[in-house]
């Protein structure tokens, strides 16, 4: 039997988790129920009306949140030659080829995003078994395999997030921090939802966005009332 903490019991007594909330009320509840000693992230889970077993209905994409996600992003770049200096100037923390691959295999993952120039993919694929499960494998469709390294690094640093649905057709992402202003959270949410809307597969039938749940890192999930959203 799972033991529920005293803090979580208090939260559940003050919040009806079965109810749907408009965005303003939901954000207030998340903020007011945050009682931990660190600044929590605000996470989103979107249940989509897709058949995740069919490849033509799977969703994968990127979007740049206008206010970022509120934490520093460390970038690893696989490249060589003159691109090394370009990556350094753009602010990448880890840069290399075989040496960077060896570092990852020995020390593990200490970064949030991986970007690669096309000529470096032969090295990257060798550690695909490490990057893939973490959703870090560079992909041209996501803009993380590119000849424009400077732009890709800057996008990653200023709020670009990558997303894809899991085997149950649910997309998980972080859209900010609990200390963001309400308008910042709403702006990020709207930008993210618009990107998901544009990514709708042509073969998806029926209701596309079935359910949206927002939560803080240590809080409960609250269902968003979509009636006032332009979805």
From TrEMBL:
Annotated GO CC locations: cytosolic large ribosomal subunit
Record's keyword annotation contains Metal-binding: no
GO molecular function, one term: tRNA binding
InterPro entries on file: Ribosom_uL1_bac-type (IPR005878), Ribosomal_uL1 (IPR002143), Ribosomal_uL1-like (IPR023674), Ribosomal_uL1/biogenesis (IPR028364), Ribosomal_uL1_3-a/b-sand (IPR016095), Ribosomal_uL1_CS (IPR023673)
GO biological process: regulation of translation; translation
Keyword vocabulary terms for this entry: Repressor, Ribonucleoprotein, Ribosomal protein, RNA-binding, rRNA-binding, Translation regulation, tRNA-binding
Keyword Secreted: no
Role this protein plays: Binds directly to 23S rRNA. The L1 stalk is quite mobile in the ribosome, and is involved in E site tRNA release.
Assigned protein family: Belongs to the universal ribosomal protein uL1 family.
Description of how the protein assembles with itself and partners: Part of the 50S ribosomal subunit.
Protein name: Large ribosomal subunit protein uL1
Organism annotation: Buchnera aphidicola (Aphis glycines)
Gene: rplA
């Amino acid at each position: 039997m799972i033991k529920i903490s005293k803090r979580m019991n208090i939260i559940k007594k003050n919040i009806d988790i079965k109810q749907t909330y408009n965005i303003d009320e939901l954000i207030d509840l998340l903020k007011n129920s945050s009682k931990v000693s660190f600044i929590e992230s605000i996470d989103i889970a979107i249940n989509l009306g897709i058949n995740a077993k069919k490849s033509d209905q799977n969703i994968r994409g990127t979007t740049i949140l206008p206010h970022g996600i509120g934490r520093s992003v460390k970038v690893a770049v696989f490249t060589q030659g003159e691109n090394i200096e370009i990556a350094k100037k753009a602010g990448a923390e880890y840069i290399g080829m075989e040496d960077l691959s060896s570092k990852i295999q020995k020390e593990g993952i200490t970064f949030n995003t991986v970007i690669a120039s096309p000529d470096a993919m032969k090295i990257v694929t060798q550690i695909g078994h490490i990057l893939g499960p973490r959703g870090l494998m560079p992909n041209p469709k996501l803009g993380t395999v590119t000849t424009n390294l400077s732009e890709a690094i800057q996008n990653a640093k200023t709020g670009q997030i990558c997303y894809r649905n899991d085997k149950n057709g649910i997309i998980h992402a972080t859209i900010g921090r609990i200390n963001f202003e309400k308008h910042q959270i709403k702006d990020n949410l709207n930008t993210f939802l618009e990107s998901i809307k544009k990514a709708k597969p042509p073969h998806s039938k029926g209701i596309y966005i079935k359910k949206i749940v927002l939560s803080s890192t240590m809080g409960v999930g609250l269902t968003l009332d979509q009636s006032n959203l332009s979805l």
